[in-house]
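step=predict obj=Adenine DNA glycosylase n=350
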Amino acid sequence: MLFHKTLIKWYLNCKRELPWRETSEPYRIWLSEIMLQQTRIDQGLPYYSAFTEAYPSVFDLANASQEEVLKLWQGLGYYSRARNLHETAQNVAYNLNGIFPESYKELLKLKGVGDYTASAIASICYNEPVAVVDGNVYRVLARYFDIDTPINSSEGIKIFKQLAMEVMDREDPATYNQAIMEFGALQCKPQQPLCGSCPLAASCLALKNNKISELPVKLKKGKIKKRYFNYLVFISLENNTLIEQRSGKGIWEGLYQFPLVETEAPVTQQELINKAEFKSYTGVDMLDITLYNDTPIIHKLSHQHLYTTFWVIEKIELPDIAVSVGALQDYPVPVLIANFLNDFEFAEFT
């Protein structure tokens, strides 16, 4: 039996029932594919449900504010996806009359849409014979054909895309693409793959050569950067606090946080107080400063680790830009801040 026919047969018998598999509407397929980039299905599913309920059409998403979109996205991570999602929704709604492009090449012109997403939408919605290549597909192909070229190298990206195109079912690319991705997620798993029940086991070269655990090969990432974040959590007599919106092209663009003093290493209370950035926030009428967490909270991102401490500062009064602590729940914040807000009791300090 051919490779693609085996995968499709397995898929039709073993696939999970997921809401985006019940439709070929481009808006919903696009939404699901953006959300599931670097995200597990069990994590992304509640967000997909929330977005399709809040924004049932691309026009609804386009008409929302960026803050509303970021708030609903909160906790899913890689927030550039949410910003691109919103911008693309506006482009499709306002410039394309709500109609998504109907070809791989035209889909690639949308912001936030790369090879994988364009291939998924083009094949699933329009049955265009273009192969998807994601982490699951890399793994299945690398093992089945025993290919040790690094999947994140320029050569590897080219080799695996070409191979994916060669082995796909050109008559039913929609089903095939979903089949190979699902196969990688459920059968040919990264750890402890189910080789004993695999329908491809008899012809899998990595299994034959005892190399399952070695494949796929991936080049190591660069050195992880360490950053030291000191958040200043102000509390006034009126139960107000200060927040600021992150700008620039770094992490968490557009999200809100407490005033931040970033240092090159962990600092003591006195070292923090001596910082010019700290003084620019606090002025002279600070009542008290308390370290909330004795041990820094380590928040791990793909290329950097944030060593974070929260300093609670009581002040007589705050400037007019202060917000009520009760209003904090309305702002989109990084999960690091959200976790703090879930644990911290402002009332204890007022």
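step=describe
The radius of gyration is 24 Å.
step=end
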